[in-house]
Amino acid sequence: MIVIHTAIAIIIMVAMIIWAKVNPVIALVVGALYIGIAGGLGLAGSVTALAEGFGDIMVDVGLLIGFGVLIGALLNQLGALRKTVDLLVQFFGPRRLPYAMALALNAFFPSIYPDVQLVLAAPLARNASSRLGRNGLGLMAGALVVGIPVGVVFVAPGLGAVSIAGLLNVPLSTSLLWGLIVALSSTLLSLLLYAELLRRGWWNTEKDETSDDVLAEPGSAVSETGSGRNPPLGVSMLSVLIPIVFIAGGAIARTFGIENTVLEFLSEPVFALFVGLVYAYVLSRFTAGRKATDFAFGTGLETSGNILLITGLGGSLAAVIKKTELSDVLTGLFSAEAGIGIIAAVVLSWIIAAVLHVAIGSINVAAITAAGIIGPATAGIDAPPVIIGLAISAGAVFAVHFNSNFFWMFSSLLGLTTRGALKSMTLMTAVVSVVALLITILLATVVSFV
Fold first, then answer.
1. Residue 335 forms beta bridges with which residues?
2. What dihedral do alpha carbons 228, 94, 423, 111 form, nearest 10°?
3. What is the dihedral of CA 83, 85, 91, 97, to 10 degrees?
4. Which SS3 state, helix, strand or coil, does residue 412 take?
5. Which end of the chain is more exposed for a tag (fewer CB within 10 A), N or C?
6. Which domain holds residue 101?
7. Distance separating alpha carbons of residues 155 and 173, to the nearest angstrom
């Protein structure tokens, strides 16, 4: 019976978000309370579990998300993304630019909120597309599609990646390393497949692009980048590279059996991201000035509020599930004894996340909700939690379409018709989702033989 009630709760949450246009924060609370009450916890017990789950996930990822968002806001202030694209054009040339740009968005900018990434990158992509020939805009659109959403949900400190790691109890260093592998490989393969489709006539300039010929100049979308005294790109990007080196370096060292208190302290994700944040803040104060820095910092704080609430409520949902019979049902469903192997567990996790995303329209909400539902059962799954996390990430990016505000921002900023957005964003997110699933299955297969 609890499975039926959970399905009802999911339908209620989806209906509230899509049709009633209710904020996901309220929808997640209603869904969690419904499951708790239907599962026999009672009203008081459900509220207690909800509050405890919120606190538990905030202990794990609250500071990580907050620091990541603030770093992203300061990088925006410093004009790092615009300079990155300029450098990529100079270094790789126009022909390789889409691939370089997508991989750069994957690896270095997941801390910047997706909508901000899109606003910054879209004018640059439109300008660069004129150098790529007839299908240039279609190819650059594909690069943004696989660059931004995939990075956010696979690569820490992206919101989706950090949230999934916290809900599945995956060390952030482990999530970062495996997430980068899957994100970069699936992005490159998907973009190569899409480029082949374009060569075969998939893109129709007349029908897929709007008649608007006014292209924004690079950087014109950035309204708060200060006085033009922004530092060199390499100096700005140290705010991202320092945490990555600290976290990944510690994980690699431990793999080779190198452990000591200093290394453990430096590779602690909270400390590593804090160092990156302090560096970005000081750099912005010295270059852009106090007023511009305070504006960027304030913007980051405002953005992080809603993000932290949604993430925390994903933890609340997981805590409620753990205290109901649904936890036992999920554990039994995913356990090896139930006849479901590691591959089936990966595919089922992907399906849950994909269905939630297609219904809800938010990649991050779908990822957090799926991880909250599956998280309580990970102990019974015959697979490392990081593999299940990768499957959830892959499913959460599946087929961005009409119910996503990102879809409409994308079509407007890139100058695409609705048909063009469907042929680029919807198709590409479906393709990269399936490619990432196949790569995750391959990794799961390797793990099962180790």
1. 381
2. -40
3. 180
4. helix
5. C
6. 2-449
7. 10
Does the pLDDT value for residue 28 go beyond 60? yes
Q: How far apart are CA 34 and CA 362, in angstroms?
A: 22
Alpha-carbon span 368 to 362, nearest angstrom = 10
DSSP 274-333: HHHHHHHHHHHHHHT-HHHHHHHHHHHHHHHHHHHHHHHHHHHHHHHHHTSHHHHHHHHH
Question: Which pLDDT band, with edges at 50, 70 and 90, does 194 fall under?
Answer: very high
d(CA 320, CA 327): 9
Tokens describing residue 223: 């309204």
Tell me what percent of the residues of the chain surpass a pLDDT of 90: 28
- pTM tops 0.85: no
- Please measure the distance between the N-terminal and C-terminal CA atoms of the chain and give it in whole angstroms: 38
Which two tokens mark 232? 């060199």
Report the C-alpha gap between 281 and 293 in whole angstroms: 7
Lowest mean pLDDT among 175-179, 250-254, 378-382: 378-382
Count up the domains in the chain and report the number.
1
Residue given tokens 């000081």 in the structure block: 282
